[in-house]
Amino acid sequence: MFPGESVSFGCHINVSTGWEYLWYKDSNQLTVSGNKYPISLVGITNSGSYTCKAKRGSDQAFITDSSQAVRLEVEGNMPKPSMTQQPDVNKVYTGESVSFKCEVKLSSGWLYLWYKDGTPLPINSSSFNIHNATSSNSGTYKCMAIRDKTTYSTEHSDSRILRVSEIPVPSVKLVTPWLDVFPTERVKLSCVMNGTSDWTYTWYRDGQQVLADGTVIFDSDAATLSISSAAASHRGQYSCSGKLKSRSVSSTFSSVQTLGVYDTKPRVTLMQNPMHNVMHTGDSVSFSCHINVSSGWEYLWYRDDNQLVVSGNNHTISSVLRTNTGSYHCKVKRGIYAVQSQAVKLDIEERPLAYITLLTGWSEVFSTDSLVLRCRVLESQDIWNYTWFKEGHPINFSLSEKHTVTPENDPEQSLYTCKGIRTGRPSYSKTSDSFHTKNLLLKRRVLLSISGFIFFAIIAIFIGCIFLRFIRKPGNGEDKPEETELFLTMAQLKDRDDALCPLVQYITDAELNASSKKEADENGTISDETTPLPISSQEDQAVTSESHDTTENNGGLVSFKQ
Question: Max alpha carbon distance in the chain (Å)?
């Protein structure tokens, strides 16, 4: 029993009449008379074992044996039914069957009431079945129980939410991002069902089921189909269907994906622009790598079999260097499949250098105020036109190799450069080194003036020496023979014994003049040029000694001339 229910006990004896009834609970007599003992609202305290006896007479009363005991159990709480669902999932798919069951595990004699979204359903049994579920069966379900005799009702069961969904349609996805492949290339397709893993899949090609073989491989749920080496037999329209792992629910077919397999491998072409076998430093060149079919390719670039850090199907060198010389090729790749192009040879030569020379000569610096510059291309036999630049800006004159700088057209005396241009290859040269015209005429004039001054000074000194030689007086009134040479050879010294060397004569005269001057000073007289000079230093003594030696050599200087 449950709190609040009512119960009634009755005591009956099968013979005679005039009986009085005694009631006992757990062997304790109750203050109740009559053959019925009602309890209108039972509680926990009413739990126990109930018996009764019959008594007749007063003095020597006859009392029957106790009746059988009736055990009354009163639960402490109101019962709550439990509701179960099969299949035990929150979401079912259209067409499936669902059953609910409501149960009170204590006692018996219950009737059951069902509710959907709070609305009673016309069902009194303990189970409730839905066959061929549709989306209209979605909702919140619960139940409760009542006593069929006491109308005692339980609490409501916990609610169960039922969602009925349409069976999803699978879709075929590309794992490899292309559907046209080449022989031996790999292909991978996947069958996706709302991103869940509750399904297993079946694959079809052109409506026929695809089975695993040496080149076709499935994963554990067949969610992925892999072709390790594509062939013509793998061409076709691929689709898939799904089946729920835990229940007998199958989807419809997916949409198809068409897989194409080419008969031959692709052709890769490498193109160069401009298409010159020889390029010159500073030129721009670009390479393009083309493949004739399909898409999704990755491009790899190589020079002399060394991979370059370049992406995309174009490789441009904006200003080539000698180090860019080499053999170029490209390779297209997707997955592990790759095809290589033909090689293109690129030769890089150094671009010829222009240079500037000054045509205005030294002899013209005093007769002109202009400078004539000439531009040439170094070590080139080709015919060139020339562009001149002043301070980096082109001069809009003729294309001549010569350019004249005057104070009128260049009062600021600027930096000049030039460059050769032509219609052939190379079409232009390197720009020359800069030529600075600042004060060039003035500097040349100053240098020529200084050089002229030095030249005329040397001539003047030479003429002066000759002049002094002829106007000098001979010593001691002797007529000196005219000498053609200052220094005599050994042969001439042997032949000449009549006169002293002019230098010895000069030194001897100096000695005499110094002596005369000393005597004059001592006597208070003024010396003249005939007065000998005194020798007061070691150097003078050395000169005197040398003069004596000279005298010993017949009065002449010894020459090394042979």
Answer: 218
- The C-alpha atoms of residue 293 and residue 277 are separated, in whole angstroms, by 29
How many degrees, rounded to 5, is the angle at CA 21 between CA 15 and CA 26? 120
Three-class DSSP category at 331: strand
Q: What is the CA radius of gyration of the chain?
A: 67
DSSP H helices in 472-561: 490-495, 502-522, 538-552
Distance CA 267, CA 332 (A): 10
| Residue showing tokens 């399909």 | 294
Same domain? For 181 and 250 the reply is yes
* Strand spans (E) along 342-486: 344-349, 354-358, 371-377, 385-390, 393-394, 402-405, 415-421, 435-436
Residue 371 and residue 298 share a domain: no
Q: Do 243 and 297 fall within a single domain?
A: no
Domain containing 186: what range? 171-261
> Is residue 187, in this structure, part of any structural domain at all?
yes
Kindly state whether residues 305 and 358 are assigned to the same domain.
no
**Whole-angstrom distance, CA of residue 418 vs CA of residue 392:** 9
Residues 361, 324 within the same domain:
no
User: pLDDT digits over 237-276, tens only?
Assistant: 999 999 999 898 999 999 999 999 998 888 899 999 999 9
Residue that is last in its domain, among 410, 438, 466:
438
Residue 184 CB contacts under 8 Å (≥ 6 apart), including other chains: 229, 230, 337
Domain annotation covers residue 452: no
Closest CA to 255 of 338, 320, 168, 318: 168
273 and 255, same structural domain?
A: no
Q: Given this model, what pLDDT does residue 555 score?
A: 42
Which CATH number characterizes residue 323's domain?
A: 2.60.40.10
**Mean pLDDT value across residues 356-384:** 79
Q: Which residues are CB-neighbours of 236 under 8 A, at least 6 positions away?
A: 205, 206, 258, 259
Residue 387 in any domain: the answer is yes
More confident residue, 330 or 496: 330
Whether the Cβ atoms of residue 39 and residue 17 lie closer than 8 Å to each other: no
How far apart CA 267 and CA 379 sit, in angstroms, is: 45
State the pLDDT at residue 490: 58
Helix (H, G, I), strand (E, B) or coil at 469: helix
The encoded tokens of residue 562 equal 């042979």
Same domain flag for 231 and 307 = no
Which 8-state DSSP code applies to residue 77? S
- Let me know if residue 325 belongs to a domain: yes
Closest CA to 142 of 80, 83, 90: 83
Q: Rounded to whole angstroms, how far apart are CA atoms 113 and 122?
A: 8
**Are 369 and 428 part of one and the same domain?**
yes
